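Let's practice the habit of predicting before peeking. Look at the sequence and jot down your guess about where helices and strands might fall. Then scroll down.
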Amino acid sequence: MSYQENFQDLFIPGVIGLITGLFIVVFVRAIEFSTELFLGNIVGYIPPLPAGEGGSTVYHFVMERPYLLPLSVAIGGLIVGIITYLVPEARGEGTEMAIKAFHFRLHLGLKSAVFKLITSAITIGSGGVSGTEGPSALIGGSVGSFVGKLFKLDDHTKNIALAVGLGAGIAGVFKAPLAGALLSGELFYRRDFEVEALIPGFIASVTSYIIVGVFTGFDHMFKVPVHPFKGLSVPLFITYFVMGVLAALVARLLVYAFFNIHHFFVNLELHPALKPAIGGFFTGILGMLNPLAIGSAYGWIQLIMLGKTTYLTPLHIITGVLMVILGLSLTLGSGGSGGIFGPCIVIGGLTGASFYYVANFLSFLPHSHIDIASLMIVGMIATLAAAANIPLSTLILVVEITGGYDLLVPSLIAVSVAYLLTTDITMFPAQVKSRIDSPAHMDELKGALLRTYRVADIMTKNVITISPTDPVLKAERLMAEYTISGIPVVVNGKVIGMVTGRDIMKVPISDRAKVTVEHIMTRNPVCVLPDMSILEVLNIFISNGIGRAPVVDNYENKNLLGMITRVDIANFLAEQERKKLAEEHDTALE
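Done guessing? Here is the structure:
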């Protein structure tokens, strides 16, 4: 490996992971401070924490002033609204912004990371339904973009640095380095993978994970009491298949609610700075009715897994699915700051718990093998995979957040079903189907077009021709009239030569009416066939130093069928690019 490769594949990802990890530590502490400031001081409520964040199995639920919760979230929303009005890049869902920046090669500076950290901490700490992973993705992406610019990387490598940083951010906050590395390549596409981001993504994600772990501990996010996996029976398969179907339905409901509420706030005739406060106020009302609809709710999910449901009835849990969906949609749809990953995990966990209670009531579950924690974890992973189009990363995530492989096979069943039932939706509209659909890979798109399309698809069929006995003056006038720089010389439909503007320039002006074309033409010119790819034609142009060629039926008869030039190829590529951008614009409007 060369010095340059070591620098780009080892050192730079390490720097990205280091800086991202430090940012995530500050972000976690900022959320703790904001939670104490808003929920603690105003509402008199401190939410439970999951085991990996220092949570205890013993939790005493107290909310001294629940009537002030709408005020707390509204104040947080107002502060965030003012900040995001002044700094627009801090608004909304962080992952979506990072994905868009990747595809359009937009620069994300540290300013984006700092303000996203502040606004997301305020949103979550004041009680808004939001997640830490979206802001962490944008923070990491901003760090990657900044480091790429700092070390003067080329545009393509800077884009990979952004992707690597995104994965490192999620790896740090989730304490899931492998899943973070995979997200570096998977999150940008619905049906593809950014392979170049994988290896540097591993380095950056592991580095970020270590930095965060040194300050906050290396425990898995959730303590999960599940039965060891001893094999797959028909009842178990059916159970997890149904779990996948339920996750797909919930993901569809989530996408529908989120974007409809978002469109409502976009069209609401109100100052942008006030909209997050309105959304926050109604989110606070939901939180008064159900504590699951406050903040990240990871701690409540942990308590439900452990069977600590002193303060939560099955009705709280079942209705919590809808309330968290509405809370997320109101919080982020109104312009609040944060992420979608966390709420998706909470919604999926509540869906799994709801399934457990309902199936138990109907005596549906195979009791000896299924517990509530297993269904909750599988529900989390399946719902996130369906809503975000990231099946591979979520399957690895289940191992890293639980610390074991016991739920890997059940998760594979549920994730596959949920993913296949939701191929037409996503919480991230900036995702594209594949690399070839990404503006960041426009050069690859052009290469694919050059290999796919044939000469017959773009050649000019109505060709201006000339006879070898015609005077050079006629050829000059034809070129001027039709704005062309070369004319094939034809006898009885057969190409015998080619005359160009350079050939004409060699004849004195006074002699152009006397000298015939046959005296200056290039005999047996390079010709191409209609079934050749455009790439083959470009290679012929380059190797022969020409810019045009007659298209003939075969190399023996050379009967003229058309004409193709470099200009024709350039115009074709430009038109395809214009159509692609128009389609992306129409999709964005939808």
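How did you do? The first strand starts at residue 92 and ends at 93.
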